[in-house]
Design goal:
- It is a single chain.
- This protein has 234 residues and is α+β, with helices and mostly antiparallel strands.
- It has two domains: 21-108, no CATH class; 122-208, no CATH class.
- The chain has two helices and seven strands, in the order αβββαββββ.
- It has a three-stranded antiparallel β-sheet. The chain has a two-stranded antiparallel sheet with strand order 4-5. It has a two-stranded antiparallel ribbon with strand order 6-7.
- The protein is elongated, with a radius of gyration of 28 Å.
- The structure holds zinc ion (ZN) (2 copies).
- One zinc ion (ZN) binds next to loops.
- The site of one zinc ion has 9 residues, from loops.
Length: 234
């Protein structure tokens, strides 16, 4: 209603489907992360558990601030700005307004926390976040940089078909940190999962990349510390 009580938007509307249910679900899933871990965390209800998906928006110099978001029940958009189009110093009060109004509506109606509806056209799969391919048990989950296995949703028919090919388990020598050779004492050799990657500069992955060389500490001439009962010969 406008300020004279005149109806501007009623319930009688014509609806048009503009995207596939699977696309809508995947987009919702991505925008739930905006609220869980992204730029929209301020809209989370403090006293009520409820799935929320949404997206923040700004224009140059923060002249306009938006948050458009929805729950399985309601959709709302808050815009803040000045008539004379100037910068705003408080960059989160539109999110606070969205949060307070929406939480109140859900509380007043005692709405149950339910997940967003998942259509049958959506399937989930365990993928490796490094390769984007199917996770391999014993490799991606045992990676020395930490498990890279994640459950992701896909539209049916778009699940990756290839298995991760950049995680590899090799025997390394603890003394050199390099690939074990036949002369490394068994007690220094362990199996570890590394990442296959070519780098031109250092990254977060650098310490976990597969060594190119074999052990340079142990070789045919190495004298191994051992009990005196073994004759190593000349
Ligand atoms: Zn992997
Ligand atoms: Zn060695």
């Amino acid at each position: 209603m406008d300020h004279d009580g005149k109806l501007l938007l009623g319930k009688e509307t014509t609806t048009t489907q503009v995207m596939k249910p699977s696309t809508a679900f995947l987009l919702t899933n991505a925008m739930e992360d905006v609220v869980k871990i992204g730029t929209g965390t301020a809209v989370r209800f403090p006293n009520l558990s409820m799935p929320i998906a949404g997206k923040t928006g700004t224009t140059s110099d923060d002249n306009d601030l938006w948050f458009s978001g929805y729950t399985p029940y309601y959709t709302a958009t808050i815009w803040t700005g000045y008539d004379n189009n100037r910068s705003q110093s408080d960059k989160s009060y539109h999110k606070i307004i969205w949060r307070d109004v929406m939480e109140q509506i859900h509380k007043d109606q005692k709405l149950e926390s339910v997940p967003f509806t998942k259509p049958d056209s959506i399937v989930s799969a365990q993928i490796c976040t490094k390769s984007g391919k199917l996770a391999v048990e014993g490799l991606c989950d045992e990676y020395i940089g930490g498990s890279t296995v994640a459950t992701e949703y896909f539209a049916k028919g778009t699940v990756p078909t290839e298995k991760c090919d950049i995680h590899v388990k090799v025997s390394v020598c603890e003394d050199s940190g390099l690939i074990a050779n036949q002369y490394c004492p068994p007690s220094t050799v362990t199996e570890k999962v590394f990442l296959i990657k070519d780098e031109t500069e250092k990254t977060y992955d650098t310490p976990n990349i597969l060594p190119k060389d074999t052990c340079d500490v142990h070789s045919a001439g190495t004298v191994l510390p051992s009990p005196g009962t073994i004759n190593w010969g000349q």
